Amino acid sequence: MTSDAPAFPPLAIVGIGCMFPRARDLDTYWANIKNGVDAIEDVPPTHWSVEDFHATDPKAPDRTYGTRGGFLEPVTFDPLEFGLTPRALESTDSTQLLGLLVAREALRDAGYGPGERAFDPDRVSVILGVTGTLELVIPLGARLGHPIWRRALREAGVDPAVAQDVVRRISEAYVPWQEDSFPGLLGNVAAGRIANRLDLRGTNCVVDAACASSLSAIHMGALELGAGRADLVVTGGLDTFNDVFMYMCFSKTPALSPRSDARPFDAEADGTILGEGLGVLVLRRREDAERDGDRIYAVIRGIGSSSDGRGGAIYEPTVAGQVRALRHAYRSAAIPPATVELLEAHGTGTKVGDAVEVRALAEVYGAAEREGAWCALGSVKSQIGHTKAAAGAAGLIKAALALHYKVLPPTIKVSRPAPGLAPGESPFYVNAAKRPWLPPEGHPRRAAVSAFGFGGSNFHVVLEEHAAEKAAPDGDGRVQIAAFSGPEPRALLAQLDAWPESASWEETRALAARSRDAFRPENPCRLVLVLEAGRSEFAAVSRSARQRLAAGGEERAWSTPDGAHFGAGAAPGRLAALFPGQGSQYVGMLLDLVCEFPEMLEALALADRVVGPVGGRRLGALIYPPATFDREAAAANEEALRDTRAAQPALGAVSSGALGVLGRFGVRPAATAGHSYGELTALFAAGRLDAESLFLLSRLRGELMAGADDGRGGMIAVRSSAATMEAWLGEESLDLVVANRNAPEQVVLSGARAEVERAAERLAARGIGHRILNVSAAFHSPLVAAARAPFAAALADTPFMAGSIPVFANATATAYPAEEGAAREV
Questions:
Q1: Contact 12, 284 (CB under 8 A)
Q2: Angle, to 10 degrees, between the axis of helix 351-365 and the axis of helix 319-333?
Q3: CB–CB of 64/247 below 8 Å?
Q4: Which of 65, 104, 205, 775 has the highest Cβ tally under 10 A?
Q5: Straight-line distance from the first to the last Cα atom of the chain, in angstroms, rounded to the nearest whole number
């Protein structure tokens, strides 16, 4: 019998620590995921020699055809911090050592690290996924081949003294056996060492389910919490085993990509690529975490597991086995698959593995009563490789952060979706570019994660957001602003000289934060330096700034190409904000801002809700549609956003959101104006309209103008004066009007589309600069005059508030009157 009741209570992810290729910490890992960073590189000499072991022939004995992968960057490790002797490092596997660092980071991130909030160590369990043996086994085992070496040398007639020297030289190439070697090579000690050094006294064990090990460990940790045997579980997966032995294993299966690149869910995918990493999560029961005020990244609602049972080869996945795990997960979570909008798949990039997974997912999700493609499908292996025992943790962390930061992250390297994933073929779409994750209707944001391992181990985890709102920007710390201020340039020079130029990036982040705290904008001299990790270090950026400051010029402001910006004296004038009108819209407007700042996301979410569907699609999906894989689809997206009914509220949403972001940094205008439609946004910015009224009026204005014009009109910008153009229109007998006087030497003509095209031809013949605008109507022309009366009626029912700053009107170039009725007439 099966039960629909959840197998365990909802669990909160309250802490995360990780190291993955090109990502020393959690912030960098998320930044790399969100921004589509490819962390795959050539095998470094620290791991193994490609020259010694590579062969293009997959069947070449004792050779691998792999040459690239995902590798951890060097890490500083102080054994004394953990009570280890330096001598023990050589005989301790790196998985155990780095696991200590990452577990401590995860606990600190949760607020339960050493010296932080009190907790009961007797109620803390450590359950981790690892591979069966650790990397240290290989060199220690290799030393035991000395009888074979001696026999071969003797049979080859080598002098015994020379043979002994050869054996000694070979032995010295490997780590020697020591007292600490036995525990140093055991997988279970990866968890045991964490429990020992951090004094955690609950259950301590590891799980090996091959590439599903970390989700298997998380499953066991969930059961431990559900049974009440622990109050906090440190779990996840560790895998630093990326030497030639592991490459040989995957080469002879064969599963490695001949191109040495994993491309999950791409039509041309030809295999996987190996990576290494460590991902540790701290779990608590949700009710306990909420009671104690923990920060919660995401909630685990259910976990499903299964075995493939009797099948073909032991390493061959089955659809039926994966389907069982998925169905168990959704029964456990009491959540329908139709509400899951992000699926982090196992997605290794192998043709057979990906095809089986897509079929299993389609069987479960295809039964949902929901039309279209609603679920973003991806795999972080496209960025970091297959991290084996840590693969499930890598995917789970990605999904949890996506829920926490409200971003649908990309899967890179997909040029054409694999069979079964083309548009219209399944409930899934390959999310090849980051997008804001807007609130769905009727349920929280939800995600799911899969991991499968040799031997037929299948796991599927269902996640849910904990809070609907984005709490804070998800800046990754890769860009820092160092800010300095003082009474004169010499004071700035002294501050620059005091900065330690050899500071690491972590130290730079701390120093930059302190400099911003000390910065005073009212000081007569001000300097900021823009620093980027790995690209523009302090010494390089400050060098040119020092030269300019030392020269002592009279310039009030200057900037250097490498990121130094200087200002002196009071501001030259007050700040005004000008908001754009239709024709400025484009697919993906301000994408980076909406994927980082809460203000942008909130504005977009409100507009999405108030405006409702436009042409059957939500406003957010029109501005930020899923990635397209051909020019026709991309052109169709641009055309859909050009529709006046979509373009106007879309501009209002991103403009009001950008205003909120500027406000976060203390940038507030003293006056506003708007270009055509943008005047509505200007009224909102001045406090004359509230946000909901802005979006209601934007929707109505777009609908009225689209109906009045019926798609017949267009507009063209011309580099000329209004007087010249009015005369020219008469000379050419063109039925157009001067709709916008944008500048002394730039106007916009408006009218029927055929007349706009005729004007473009004649302007070109006369060599007059011009550009047909990206609009779907002839705004400010007689073609849209029918929209005036119904829009005025809607304005009569819209509250106009007093406002805080002046708004300058398009028609009069004067400020809106304070009186409500008079303001509506403008």
A1: yes
A2: 40
A3: yes
A4: 775
A5: 71
